[in-house]
Amino acid sequence: MTEKGELYEVTADFSGKVGDPQFLPVSKGDIIHVLKKETGWFIVEKKVNGKVPQKILRPYTLTLPLTKTKANSPQQGMMGKTYLVRHNKLNTLFVMKRVDYLDDHEKKFALEEVEQMRRLSSQYTVRLIWTFPRDTDLCLIQEFCSGGDLRNSIAELQKISEEERLNHVWELFAQIILALNHLHSHNVLHRDIKPANIFIMEDGTARLGDFGLAKDLKDTYNATMAGTKFYMAPEVLLQKTMGFNADVYAVGIVICELLTGKHLFLMDTEFATIANIIEDEFVDELSSGAFGRIIVMKLKITGQIYVIKRVPYVRSNAKQAADNEVAMLKSAHSKYTLSLIETFPHDLDLCIVMEYCSGEKFEIYVPNFKRNLASTLTRHHTSRLKTRKCDFGLTLSIADKSYATFVGSKVYSPPEAHIEKKMTKESDIWAAGIIIIEIITGVHPFEGKMQQETIDNIITVPKLKTFSW
């Protein structure tokens, strides 16, 4: 099997240029790695980087003179097997990762990893040298990091003095963060930051590797949860999605492990460890939808519980919608509405912190529920606010007109809203009535087998059942 890679063979001697170290001396027959191509000159990597004339270089076609080293058995991981191999002609060690490459899904997955490694190649990441298919696998030949991965460093760091350990970990931390910034600046989420995926070079510098789970976030804000659960943030384990902050959290756990010699939340079992991670901050996720995610959070210091609504805050229309919701919360503030505590930006979202309603012993408050709900709507309407939904994300001011565009939950909207596509103050009163009936009887008065049947029942307004209470 052969494949042309970034390795080039030198066809003639070049002694460099006297007094100019940017031009690198090379000898005929040398095999060198090209980092960058410029007109007339290639920047190549040997012990140092330098320029070599393009005319004396030709692509080096690699055959497969690789031998597995006897001292290393394959390392089996979720994303494939990894071997330490030696190139016989170059007498150089490389790492060979073999990933499944049989059906279309496996090929797509493998080629995505290759593309990520090529696109993200830098001084902060483990470099891909070349690839070739073999049997039912795709083999990825990567540079060899002689210092191993950070798993080897955790125990060794505990043997040196605290001051030495702290200084060394700070150096590693800076390099890992630079690597992570490199990925995130290319809109790539790693999704599996852990000691086993951070490698140490011969000179002691750190490089980030294993991009099998890396995800491009160019057109979205988050990705599906993937990776090693012990290094996942509480919100990732609860919400099953990951953003750039998930990588940063994982780096924090790795750094704590390097400093202390143990995982920050490690318990006797995997289940207990995950429970320990989650219970440290988050209580639950209430809901998730088009207008944001609503999370219950418990402050570590005071133990007080709040509700945090995270809404998108990047594009101009998303920012306007979020700012409008905050303004409505402030305008409608009363003893009948959720109190706004504060707001703050986080990653690509705006976090709206509100008081938490525990919902305990709700039956005690049912007799007063109708009066309180009516008082709330009265306050909103006298403020010329149209609720359109109990969440303030759809609240609209109708100071200059008598109606608003039809939005919100269709099964709580009146017939005229469905027909005319408009909503008025009476729409809120209708919704309040539906809610009261549903609370008292346990059944939506127009309930059908499917949502559309419920909507049809609302529009046609059939004869309703008579309820007694």
TrEMBL record:
EC code: 2.7.11.1
Residues annotated as domain Protein kinase: 68-336
Catalytic activity: L-seryl-[protein] + ATP = O-phospho-L-seryl-[protein] + ADP + H(+); L-threonyl-[protein] + ATP = O-phospho-L-threonyl-[protein] + ADP + H(+)
A GO molecular-function annotation: ATP binding
SUPFAM superfamilies: Protein kinase-like (PK-like), SH3-domain
Pfam families assigned to the protein according to its UniProt record, in alphabetical order: Pkinase, SH3_2
Name used for this protein in its record: non-specific serine/threonine protein kinase
UniProt organism field: Streblomastix strix
